[in-house]
Amino acid sequence: MDQLVKQRSQALTALLVLAVIWGYNWVVMKSALDYVGPFQFAAMRTFFGALVLFLVLYVTRRSMKLIAFPTMLVLGLLQNVGFTGVLMWALVEGGAGKTAVLTYTMPFWTLLLAWPLLGERVHGWQWLAVLSAVLGMVFIFDPLHIRADAFSMLLAVLSGISWALSAIMTKQVQRRYPGLDLMNLTAWPMLLGSLPMVLIAWLVPAPAIQWAPYLIGAVFFNVVLCGALAWLLWIFALQRLPAGVASMGSMLAPVLGVFAAWIQLNEVPDKMEITGMSLIIFSLALISILMMRPPSKPVTLSPPGK
How far is CA 148 from its chain centroid? Predict the structure, then answer.
């Protein structure tokens, strides 16, 4: 019982660190596009991030064996091309704060898909947290006032759907191969998914890269923190929490992204966005409290005749 509570506490801490990294990175990525094309940046982030992970695998003498190649390839495509590549495309014309929020419709797609695919149901007070988060997203999205950046917003939502599918597939891989090393599960999809991303970056025309100090720092931030470390934290949390709950917990990131864009990029949120962020914060607090509570003892029914 205590061990389970400890594991959940560690998972929630990992989600908090992950949210801070991913939340601030929306400003970093948006600013980096002044120096590099979106697909070029996505390719550098994913490919070099994979190299860092394989270096760690080698140094720590962990297994570098590739297991379930087709599954790992699909997982890599979802995480790198579908998620990272598409969100970078969305950032070209859309604001950092709004793109962050729409990408994080991911938890709702995850909850929708986790029910039939993983058998993970939402129970009790979790419904209140889900309702609060849904209302928060509606307020921030403000569907009655869709502007000229509709295509960018659509790309952001598609990025969130791809991320949700990768979360579901990650849980399925963990169930099929319970002994699979966490870093191995992170490294191989990142490497396999980065190769098509490199090809796309090479084929799509883009201005010459301007190797300014900010771009170098942005690449380092994305490769080491947002690429390698963040995916490790994400999969670590998925191992210890239901996919839907882990996804909802990570929703702090877009809230931080909106605030960071407000401070650094002058993307001032309106009253609707502020209301939505407040609802999301309430949802996160409620989920954290529920996950810290020890689970109730299951009722065991004796077989007939005993």
Answer: 26
